[in-house]
Amino acid sequence: MLTVAAWVVVVWQSATADTEGMDNMLTMDMALPIFLAVWVAMMVAMMFPAAAPMILTFARVQERKQQGGGPYVPTWIFAGAYVAVWTAFGVLAYAAAVGAMELADNSMLLMDNAGRIGGGILILAGLYQLSPAKDVCLSKCRSPLAFVLGSWRDGRAGALRMGLEHGLFCLGCCWLFFVIVFPLGMTNVAVLAALVLLMFAEKALPFGQRARVLAAVGLIAYGSVAVVVTDALPSLMG
To answer: CA 86: distance to chain centroid?
Structure first.
């Protein structure tokens, strides 16, 4: 239900966003609190389908401990810590977007090459798909039971630590997917839905490795086109 509600917010935001005349396309002229609210909704909509197996595994282990008379920790502590990691990343993304727009306002070179910069971001995302860092983080996300058993900590503080740890591994897997929504369009529901399917495939489906490689090839190819054809991406600078 939480994921459905988040998608309702994302679709509503996409339908009501008026990008004409915005001074800052990257943040859609939002103040930080509003941006974070939209960011968290987008994160829940995009990440919870792939994160659900891990959260449900944690919940099942806690349920068994409770049935056995052991101490019980609410699952929301684990999930809340996970969301906190992505919220902190949203603050960094907002600061970077504001900084980029301030630089662009004072540099015609950046304004004239916004499409190429966006293309470079897509190429970077494609290369990261094939990196050892992605391998390590994805291995932690693909096996919820192994993560829970290998990283288990008792008590509320332990659940908080586990949620933060899982959130960091998940961030390591997918941070560039959230970065590329800036050049591809934060209000582009089709792009968001495609990224959800890709992240779910990578983390939960048997052909996840092939999906990962195909995504890398697609991102590098599209980014290369955008570097050459500067209007191949949506306008980043308004």
So the answer is: 7
Residue 25 predicted with pLDDT over 70: no
Pick the residue with more confidence: 231 or 142? Answer: 142
The angle, 0 to 180 degrees and rounded to 10, between the axes of the packed helices 2-16 and 32-67 is 170
HSE of 169, CA atoms in CB hemisphere, 13 A:
21
Count the residues in the chain.
238
Residue ranges covered by each domain of the chain: 2-13+30-228
- Cα separation, 139 vs 195, in Å, equals 19
Q: Which amino acid is at 123?
A: I
Residue 13: band (very low, low, confident or very high) from pLDDT cuts 50, 70, 90: low
Does this model's pTM top 0.85? My answer is: no
Q: What confidence tens digit (pLDDT) does each residue in 192-223 have?
A: 888 888 888 888 888 888 999 999 999 999 99
